[in-house]
Amino acid sequence: MVVAALVNYTPVQNYIAHRAAESLSKKLMTKVTIGHIRIDILNHVYLQGLYVEDQAHDTLLYAGEAQVKITDWFLFKNKPVIHYFGLKNSYVHLYRSATSNAWNSDFIADAFSTPGSKKDTVKSKPLELDLKKIELEHVRFHMDDKWIGQDLDFDVGDFTLNTNGLDFNKRMLDVSDILIKNTVVSVGIYKGGKPRTKHDLDLEDFDPTPFNPDMWAAKAGKISLEGCSFNLTMDDKIPEPGHFDENHLAIRDIDVSIKDGFVVGDTIHGNVLHLSAHDRCGIAIKTMRSKVTVSPIASICDELYLETNYSKVQRYYAMEYRHFPDFTSYIDSVTMVAHLKDAIIDERDIAYFAPQLKKFPKVVLHASGDGRGTVANLSAQHLNVTDGATVIKGSVTMKGLPDIYKTYITVTDAQVFTTGEGILHYVPELRNSPNIALERLTYAYFNGKYAGFIENFGVNGALKTNLGTAAVDVKLNIPGFNIATAAYSGTVATNDLQIGILLKQSLFGGITLRENVKGNSFDPDHVQMDIDGTISQFTINGYAYQNIMTHGTVAKKQFDGKILVDDPNMGLEFDGGVDYTQKDFKINATAHLLGSNFK
Predict the structure, then answer these.
(1) Cis link prior to 126 (omega < 30° from 0)?
(2) H or E element: which one contains 247?
């Protein structure tokens, strides 16, 4: 009885603990100290200042405060219940160097192992234990692995977990709520010291390890994150400000509220009531709501509402991948699936991922449709996109993003409705141009297909405008969107196209033609165009000439070539040149005037 009373006395407990620490230091051949301990027999342990060094005299473990409250389970037959486990101001640091596969904690297991002992092959009885509450405050767990080339650090500000029950035998965990505050998770990936083998490369190519190999079942009534952060560093390069970089993530102010979360096998389900965060580059998730499913091969957001800096996306979005590390090469490795309805997509948000868009005028798109693919190889069907002035419908594929200038775009079943003002929004340098009057297009409707890059492409289809109609099958190259240096070739057919109005040439009226064209520039002062075809009708100076066959070159307001005119008031075979740079034509040609009615 005296011994039992003394053991329950705190100074005696501290004396025993200090002697135990000294004994452990000798066995481990390193430093182990305990500041203070208090044990209430059967149900409570409180410990302060536990310190363990590794063999390099670095901190392996420091526990500022730790306490456990447990049932008086020795007096009952039921399994023990840990009513409370708390840890404050603590630090765990595991590491291994680039030259060894041994962890700095391995010496502890070695010290307690028996040389030559064999593993126990008898199947042990499943652990029977219940858990009610865990609290962590200012706890850091760092695992730095220079052998593999991966650092994983958890800096927990506050963590609280309350459960309704834990059953190791049935592998079930019933959580009522989890609250995580001011916690930072940092991941660093770099080249490790371990020699590379083919087996290692195969594992990198595909990692089949499930995250829940023991098939635990778990559910959580409520999960909350407040003021948390996530960092990812993949190389030593300095990320460019304002540009999203999947190799340098610094996501701050992560706030999450989830209800009815549960785990089935290797898949997590939950109802996200709110999520907000922002990345180093500037893009932010203002709010997100969704029914979420996360598995080793897909993350799915159904009934989605997502609002970023300037954009809103709703309905359905999913990401498919071979394994989670694919997110470190998101642009090429993660397949996105989207079913959008009434989405608002702002060019300023897209520019974080495709910085080249920043030099284009501001664009806000309203979009609906179905999309699938990686950022680098994206396609969309049943697309309906408008910026308020222009409407685009059809199916689109884009290969080459995020560099928009190297992206090959294919549009099939395209329908485009726009206006001159809608076009000028994207080429504002043409506004008030002395050579072209796009503002005179009150409507333009195109039906056809498009294939190529944004500066070098082919177009095939029919165009209807208030200034006439055209059918085109042409290839066009416009470096820097400069019409003066454009190059083009193909076939153009028009029907009463008011070319004089469009090109600000009062001498000309409507033109109906079918011509094979090849040339450079759309600037009348610099254009050079080879033409070969038939002009059914062309109004010049108020008269509509008919049945003109052409073969020649138009350059700098001059024509040189052959013309055959079979007009009711003129029959003419013409071989030479026409200069219309001035008000009066200058003609230098050999001609056969077969019939004429000059009046």
Answers:
(1) no
(2) none
